[in-house]
Design goal:
By secondary structure, the chain is α/β, with parallel strands linked by helices. It has a domain of about 290 residues. The protein is about 40% helix and about 15% strand. It contains 16 helices and 20 strands. A hairpin with a 4-residue loop joins strand 2 and strand 3. Helix 3 runs antiparallel to helix 5 and helix 6 crosses helix 8. It starts with a helix and ends in a 7-residue tail after the last strand.
Length: about 600
């Protein structure tokens, strides 16, 4: 489903094109009945074709099991502080989710939503007013029929009342003044019976409804006038075919020009009298009428290609790992051996187990590789390594294991502690780029020059305002914030600080940038939200304990879970956990988990 503005523009384009074709090739060149039906069908098609959403899929869609790791290239990540600089300075961007948008800050989006809501309310009010006036006119005709003297006729009913100044017909009723007598009465009845026989009123009602719904479209108003014109031509031709004198009939029309009848009826009081008189002396010429109507087929096909067909590709699996519970949420411990897609690595007291079997570091990777090789090739990327370690285990040992994993291309990792777990993607090894398995784009840590523009260097860089750093030292002291504004924070404060950085509701230049993008919801609605370009970069000292590292990861997960829950309630009026799969997917893409960390290095 497209935006309302684009839809209206496409309606204008289609209706103008179809009316141009009518004026150029069809009018006065094909039978009256074909003209009438074309005008009605053209206005209905102009409204329907842009509303269609016909997907076109390419013949082949290739899915890559590993995510394409990338980052914006026009800005620069701040340099590491001297106190924390070390051999891990060549960080890679990891876990930048493949989703492309984020929740907007309420300040700008609310103003835009209010403006769109006001315009929609005004448009809807005019539509309701137009439909109401149409209903009032039909009620007036019905009331007049009740007061009139009714006489049944052959396929019609004659309603006579002194208040009728000008004859007209509506549906199967002909309205006429009883003062109309003689030859004039016979001609008028013949004319109005033609309107009734050809169901001209039904066509007028259809076009009136379309005009009420699309009152802003000038081509609908033009089509209405042209339809009246064709209907009068047809009724005039039927009168003359009956054998009445041309001059006498023209005199009757002149006498009726200054009467009154409702403008949605068929009558004898139209301003295009000159054209009617000309058409009375014109013999119908319908040469090549079928070929002329056939010219509309490629025009309609072209409009459908431009306005209805949407090129789509089947969506690849989401690169983001499975949702992890927030801090404090209990998670059942798995069996020591895990499952077909999980390898459990247990670390305690300097010892190492893989799926419950003691082993060395060298044996660890061999066992993991054996389990991966037993999986089908298209499912190997699903294999997750779950690290379970005692809380006192230092991150240096864990980093050794992570370095082995990323060199082997095992990027999915689950960190577990005391029944709680968090899933993340490891930064891929630079060596994987040479194997063609993933594109690795290293983050540049460059200092700023004397001006506002950052120093340009080769590689991928991230703007300073878009990188929220979390530093954890050996004494479990945490600092968080932008490079120049890091402050000490507690574990409880971290989630709120990260959420504020990503939301940036006041468009603070010191917080993450946002860019509006449009999302298509499962129910067909389209919503625009500002995309946060911020990422969270975690830098943990080798001497920090494992439980502090997992605690930080859980705080980050809690921040993203809160953002997703807010967005789920805004879009679907339900919490994120209550959404179905399609709704959860679009919310996940709107709030991607963009968490990276300094590439794990081997302890020395």
């Amino acid at each position: 489903m497209k935006s309302p503005l684009l839809y209206l523009l496409e309606v204008l384009f289609c209706s103008g094109l179809l009316l141009g074709l009518y004026r150029l090739l069809l009018v006065r060149r094909i039978p009256y009945r074909a003209c009438r039906r074309y005008l009605v069908a053209a206005m209905v098609a102009a409204a329907v074709i842009p509303a269609l959403n016909i997907p076109l899929y390419p013949a082949d869609t290739v899915f890559y099991p590993l995510p394409l790791i990338e980052a914006p290239a026009e800005a620069v990540l701040p340099a590491r502080d001297a106190a924390t600089a070390g051999p891990a300075a060549d960080a890679d961007v990891g876990t930048l989710a493949a989703e492309a948008s984020a929740v907007p800050g309420p300040a700008s989006v609310d103003r835009a939503a209010a403006w769109r809501g006001g315009v929609a309310a005004l448009y809807g009010a005019v539509v309701l007013l137009s439909l109401g006036l149409l209903g009032v006119r039909m009620l007036r005709i019905r009331r007049l029929r009740r007061r009139a003297h009714l006489t049944p006729g052959d396929g019609y009913t004659l309603a006579e009342h002194p208040a009728i100044a000008s004859p007209f017909s509506f549906l199967r009723t002909v309205f006429m003044s009883p003062a109309c007598t003689g030859l004039r009465r016979e001609m008028i009845l013949c004319h109005e019976r033609s309107h009734v026989r050809h169901a001209h009123t039904a066509e007028r009602i259809v076009l009136e409804v379309v005009r009420c719904l699309y009152w802003i479209n000038p081509f609908v108003w033009i089509a209405g006038r042209w339809l009246e014109e064709v209907q009068e031509w047809e009724a005039d031709a039927d009168v003359l075919k009956t054998g009445y004198d041309l001059t006498a009939y023209r005199i009757v029309i002149f006498r009726q020009l200054f009467g009154y009848n409702p403008d949605m009826t068929c009558g004898l009081n139209h301003s295009f009298t000159k054209n009617r008189f000309l058409m009375m002396t014109r013999f119908e010429m319908h040469r090549h009428a079928l070929w002329r109507l056939g010219a509309a087929i490629p025009v309609v096909a072209g409009m459908m290609m431009l306005c209805s067909f949407t090129v789509r590709t089947a969506e690849p699996p989401v690169a983001e790992p499975a949702e992890a519970p927030t801090a404090g949420a209990p998670v059942a411990e798995e069996a020591p051996g895990g499952d077909a897609y999980t390898v459990v690595v247990r670390m305690s007291g300097g010892e190492l187990w893989v799926d419950g079997v003691p082993c060395t570091k060298e044996e660890m990777m061999r066992r993991i590789a054996d389990k991966r090789d037993r999986l089908p090739a298209e499912e190997r990327s699903r294999l997750t390594v779950e690290i379970r370690a005692d809380g006192a285990v230092r991150m240096g040992s864990v980093s050794d294991a992570k370095a082995e994993l990323r060199e082997a291309g095992m990027l999915r990792v689950r960190y577990s502690l005391h029944g709680e777990s968090v899933e993340r993607l490891l930064p891929p090894s630079p060596g994987m780029a040479g194997q063609g398995r993933v594109e690795v784009l290293p983050v540049i840590e460059a200092s700023f020059g004397t001006g506002e523009e950052p120093v340009k260097e080769a590689g991928v860089a991230i703007a300073q305002r878009n990188c929220f750093r979390v530093l954890v030292n050996d004494r479990i002291e945490m600092q968080a914030g932008l490079a120049a504004r890091k402050t000490s924070v507690s574990m409880d404060e971290l989630a709120a600080r990260v959420a504020e950085f990503l939301r940036n509701p006041s468009d603070d230049a010191a917080l993450s940038e946002r860019r509006e993008q449009e999302f298509e919801l499962p129910d067909g609605r389209r919503e625009r939200y500002a995309v946060s370009r911020g990422i969270v970069l975690l830098d943990t000292a080798p001497g920090a304990p494992y439980d502090a590292y997992v605690g930080v990861q859980q705080a980050l997960t809690k921040a993203y879970a809160g953002l997703r829950d807010d967005l789920a309630r805004r879009w679907f009026d339900r919490s994120f956990d209550e959404l179905d799969e399609g709704q959860r997917t679009v919310v996940q893409r709107a709030v991607p988990v963009a968490v990276s960390e300094v590439a794990p290095q081997r302890s020395r």
